[in-house]
Amino acid sequence: MPVDYDVIAKAIVDADKDAAVTAVKEDLSILIKEGLTDLEAAKKILHGGMIAGMDIISELWVQEKIFIPEVLLSAKVMHGCMNELRPILEASGEPPRGIVVIGTVKGDLHDIGQNIVSMMLRGNGFEVHNIGPNSSPEKFMDKAREVNANLIGLSALLTTTMPMQRETIKAFDEAGLLEDAAIMVGGAPVTTDWAEKIDADGYAPDAAHTVKLANLLVEDLAVQA
Ligand code: B1M
């Protein structure tokens, strides 16, 4: 039976957790039988079905065809599907390429994107400490000190919380924590221009680019050391 990613996307839009999780499991098994590795299959399902479903939700919300309760229900189903992919995306036996503290900045409750970024970074050999949404500069700094992080990831999904990325970077700088660490920023409204304006070390538009950026930043830090 061929894989139909629309079934997952539709189940996320309909907030039908059982249907979504069943389709994720079935599609994983089909793609692996077709010869893809676990990781290749998980990435295809993530982008072709799950993120596509959340894109539809975004569009429906913009058009005011659905409202926050519906968005929250779909977000929960998205989390349920992510639980199925997590072990695959995170599996790695190598020593960590870098130590990342990631979260969504203070005032911002959106966490789906940064959870995906976290999983992809883990799956690509980074040690990731995900401190969750609504994280203050102090929370980021406490965790960075505790785990001796060399990469900090700041997610913001609201134009009103983007300035908190700048505040967090300032706080790290003033505390002298940027000598051996680099800051990455991301989130739907964030741009390269914004990243430059707030003195971030890099911007990534999605999880795959975050992995590339993290690798580059870790190499730069090694050269500077
Ligand atoms: Co909110 N919301 N929301 N929301 N929400 C947006 C962001 C919005 C664009 C919708 C819209 O109006 N079109 C809009 C922001 C407008 C703006 O600021 N310009 C909005 C609004 C207004 C709000 C509220 C203010 C609504 C209200 O209460 N009136 C409110 C704010 C609450 C708060 O945070 N204080 C609110 C609440 C919510 C829910 C709680 C209902 C829910 C969040 C549930 C959750 O996360 N647990 C929600 C959702 C789901 C959305 C949309 C529909 C989807 C976001 C999402 O999960 N996308 C969103 C619409 C949109 O973004 N187009 C919207 C899927 C996810 C995979 O993508 O998060 O972009 P994304 O992550 C990507 C990349 O951006 C990148 O990689 C990820 C994977 O590829 N990335 C990084 C993300 N972080 C990164 C960090 C990095 C690097 C890359 O480096 C570290």
Quick tags:
single chain, 225 residues, alpha/beta, five-stranded parallel β-sheet, 9 helices, 12% strand, globular, binds CO-5-methoxybenzimidazolylcobamide
Protein architecture, described:
It contains nine helices and five strands. With 225 residues, it is an alpha/beta fold. Strands 2-1-3-4-5 form a five-stranded parallel sheet, with helices on both faces. The relative contact order is 0.11. The model has no long low-confidence stretch (mean pLDDT 92). Bound molecules: CO-5-methoxybenzimidazolylcobamide. Residues 51, 54, 57-58, 61-62, 68, 71-72, 75, 102, 107-114, 116-117, 153-155, 157-160, 184-189, 204, 206-207, 210 line the site of CO-5-methoxybenzimidazolylcobamide.
Produce the secondary structure layout.
Layout: H1 5-13, H2 17-33, H3 38-62, H4 68-90, E1 99-105, H5 112-123, E2 127-135, H6 137-147, E3 151-155, H7 162-174, E4 182-186, H8 192-197, E5 202-203, H9 207-224
Parallel strand pairs: 1-2, 1-3, 3-4, 4-5
Helix pairs in contact: 1-2, 1-3, 2-3, 2-4, 3-4, 4-5, 5-9, 6-7
The structure holds CO-5-methoxybenzimidazolylcobamide.
The site of CO-5-methoxybenzimidazolylcobamide has 38 residues, from helix 3, helix 4, helix 5, strand 3 and strand 4.
